Amino acid sequence: MAGKISPLAGKCGLFAVCCALFLLEGAIGAEAALVLSLDECLAVAEANHPSITGAEASVASAAGRLASNAVSDRTEISGSAAVSRSGSEISQNSSSSLGLSASLKIYDANRSKYALDSSRASLSATEEDARGTLFEVRSNVKSAFLTLLLDYEIARQRMESLKAFEQHLEQAKGFYEAGTKPWYDVTKAEVDLGNAQMSLAEASANIRNARASLAGAMGVDPSEEFEITSPGLDIMDIPDGAESAAEETALENRTDYISSQFKIDAGRLTLRSEARSGSPTISLTGGYNWDGKDFYDLEMGWNTGLRMSVPIVDGGAQKARIDIANAQIMSLEASHEKLRQDILLEVSRAKTDITKARERIRISELTLINAEENRKMAVGRYETGVGDPLEVADALVSFADAQLANKQAHHDLQLAIINLEKATGVEFGLKNAAESDGGKQ
Which of 82, 182, 240, 375 would bridge with 395, disulfide CB 3.0–4.6 Å? Predict the structure, then answer.
């Protein structure tokens, strides 16, 4: 229906803009209790994440098992005390005794030594697993931080698009009121503005979700109020030579690969220990004892000697334990080789993703330049009265899409660098803060 502009439609449009601005301010403009840089987010994660606490507890447990196994090769000393009374209708007897005995294992064919070395290797494997947990937590924080940064950038772009469509709507209204453009131009501009408002509202909602994800990655309550500083999307870079040496670096530094080797070593040492479980054990024993009728009247004695224990028949228990240990070693070795292949594949994929992301950045920058030129031409043609609203709308949307594609390409490159870090087991570090345009989001 052609005619004058509806005041209600104008108020509804203004209301929608206000709602979108309110949502965006709530996502990125409100004062928060904390303003965190990426380094600070990583520090919070290391101090709070439950996975790190659990990994540290596993290390403590493995250290305790090692200490427990070490006792078998140490001198054992025990004491005893006893009092007994017996009697009948015609007599009563009493006896008292104290004893102190010691035992030291002096030979067991190194069975205890290999078992102890196996525990040490298991502890080393657990320590590597704990390092891997810390590395994974830090990687997850970086990824979540980058995603939140991208959502901020998208929200900014949506805001810029919203302002451009608002300006176009005002132009369309002016031309209509001047009688140089039809009512259709105003209607089309209002629809485009409504879509921009919806996109902005979605962007602000994505920011809230991304912030909650970052909180989860740090191991804190997702309802925690905080903001992040903005160093730009390009927060990481790859050191010189890191890509060419990535495969070798991965096999030298991946904590899961190192842990896997320690577990194989532990299994082999356990096998050696079990293979000697049929050997004799020789211990040196000795002690003092005090015996008598009452505690105040005890006589001292002493004893010393060698004790040898030789298993004769165990019903096949030793063979079964050896077979189990052999099978476990084969399984561990197969898993180790599979892990090696997976690591090399991860490295290859990460390097490929980096190459693809760099190419997307190059292409997106060219596309962005072209889209900006088309936007300027379309807006200019419409302002001079020779363009049409569809051309302007298409140009604005194409420019917005080109901006987002460029931001996404930079984000993808950063994620690919993080994936290369994961694949190699080495953190490349962050760019110097002086190179970034930091500021509160």
Answer: 375
Which residues have CB under 8 Å from 277's CB, separation 6+? 111, 311, 318, 321
Tokens representing 374 are 């088309």
Give, in degrees to the nearest 5, the angle at Cα 254 between 251 and 255.
Answer: 135
Return the amino acid letter for 275.
A
Say how far apart CA 251 and CA 257 lie, in whole Å: 7
CB-count exposure of residue 413 (10 Å: 0-12, 13-18, 19+):
buried
Counting runs of H as helices and runs of E as strands, what totals does the chain give?
A: 9, 6
Backbone φ and ψ for 105, nearest 5 degrees, come out as -75, 125
Residue 194, CA distances (Å) to 24, 158, 171, 178, 241 in order: 16, 12, 16, 24, 50
Please, which residues bridge with residue 78 across strands? 101
The type of residue at 170 is E
Dist CA 263 CA 330 (whole Å): 12
Alpha-carbon gap, residue 352 to 346, rounded angstroms: 10
Contact call for residues 3 and 177 (beta carbons, < 8 A): no
Distance separating alpha carbons of residues 101 and 84, to the nearest angstrom:
21
Residue 74 sits at φ, ψ, to 5 deg, of: -105, 160
Can you read off the two tokens belonging to residue 57? 């507890």
User: For the chain, which domains are there?
Assistant: 7-74+110-278+315-435 (1.20.1600.10), 75-107+279-313 (2.20.200.10)
Q: Is the pLDDT of residue 344 over 90?
A: yes
d(CA 34, CA 306): 70
Q: Is 356 helix (H, G, I), strand (E, B) or coil?
A: helix
Q: What is the pTM of this model?
A: 0.80
Q: Euclidean distance between the first and final Cα of the chain, in Å?
A: 44
Identify the bridge partners of residue 85 per DSSP, sorted by sequence position.
Answer: 94
| pLDDT tens digits, one per residue of 361-414 | 999 999 999 998 988 888 888 778 777 777 777 888 888 889 889 999 999 999
Go through 100-115 and write b for each residue having 16 or more CB atoms within 10 A of its CB, e for each that does not.
Answer: eeeeebeebbebbbbb
d(CA 170, CA 166): 6
